[in-house]
Amino acid sequence: MTQQHEALRLLEEALKELESPKGSVLAAIQKLLRASKLLDNEDIQVWCLIQLGERRYVLALKKLGPVIWAKDIANSPKKKKALYEVLEELNELKLKQAIHYTTEELIVKASESGGGYISVGFIEERYADLVRAKRGNDGTYYKNNLYNHLNWLRKRAHEFASTLYNKLKFSGTVSNCFDALKGAVDDKLLDLDPQLAEQLMLAFKAVSSAEVEEWSQALTTCRRLLEGLADRLYPPTTDVVKGRPLTQTQFVNRLWAFMDRSIASESNRELAKTHVDFLGSWLERTNKVANKGVHANVSQLEAVKATFHTYLVIADVLEYLTAPELPKRLNDINTATMDELEAVLDISRAVAKEIIKARVLNGNLDATLLGKVRGIGPKTIEKATLAYSL
């Protein structure tokens, strides 16, 4: 049995424990720990160790509560220094706020009567003892608080286990299918307009970032990309088609009109137009949040969904395109069109596309990065060095 199969088995067992009213939270977290080790997921490993009472993490985390809940901390240099020192210690232990000490977790752990940072095994035993004895507390631990702590641990562990399970279960199907779609769309869009293609690839790259600001930027990029695509396919006009104005700001209407004109099949046309309508209205709504600067309200999931939907819409559009116009020539390898790259470097269109994908991934290309592109050899690098002064 491979490590992935064993991890999948452990995650299935952990989920069963967590979803059963009589299941053991301790057993589930132990299985989650073993699965996360097999999958090299250090963040979840550490979270499990914290719940199991790992001393080096618990000692540091116990210091955080009293400091972070201290009164008037904003006006006390001494208290702020103490908080900074604790956060530095947590950082040295590679603990992450979003995973290992969220506000919700700090609140749950703040109650000593609910077990605090004691091992989940002890919390589970103590709660069971109070239930059997039909007592509300033993003077130190309170049944309701222990129950709330266990309930929260069950929910949080389930989030981690189900995320790992779904990622592992479907990693060889859905992701590969989307990769195929993404590759096809990137290639076709590069033929139409390399600048738009780079915007789309940059949006996809941004949603993989850990930075919240990049997620909201990906949303903005998707919107601008659709505007640019509409400008290219159906320029603004004062006409009104089927009750829809086609002015500069009405980019969704213009994409809709392009599809109405280009797609022969009525069923395909209506489906594609509905998809465009949905994505356009959804991007407008989400961008209102991003434009207010409330980046915390733009989740990574929203950014991923926007990017995926954008790929799907563009796949619909590109399917009905005729041969594109050639873009203008530029004399810089980092802004050059595919036609220039093909002509100047004497390479195939496929290799030119790989160069554009590489510069999106890496930023500006130099001779070293160019040499890592598939299909590029010493002779091509020499030509590029002479042509573009790499």
Summarize the structure.
By secondary structure, the chain is mainly α. It contains 19 helices and two strands.
Structure notes:
By secondary structure, this protein is mainly alpha-helical. The chain folds into three domains: 3-169, no CATH class; 174-318; 338-388, no CATH class. The chain has helices spanning 3-19, 25-38, 42-51, 55-68, 77-92, 97-100, 103-110, 120-133, 143-169, 174-192, 194-206, 212-233, 251-262, 266-291, 300-318, 338-345, 349-362, 367-371, 378-388, and strands spanning 240-241, 244-245. It has a two-stranded antiparallel sheet with strand order 1-2. Residues 292-296 and 323-330 have low confidence and may be disordered.
Descriptive labels:
390 residues; mainly alpha; 3 domains; two-stranded antiparallel sheet; 19 helices; 2 strands; 70% helix; 1% strand
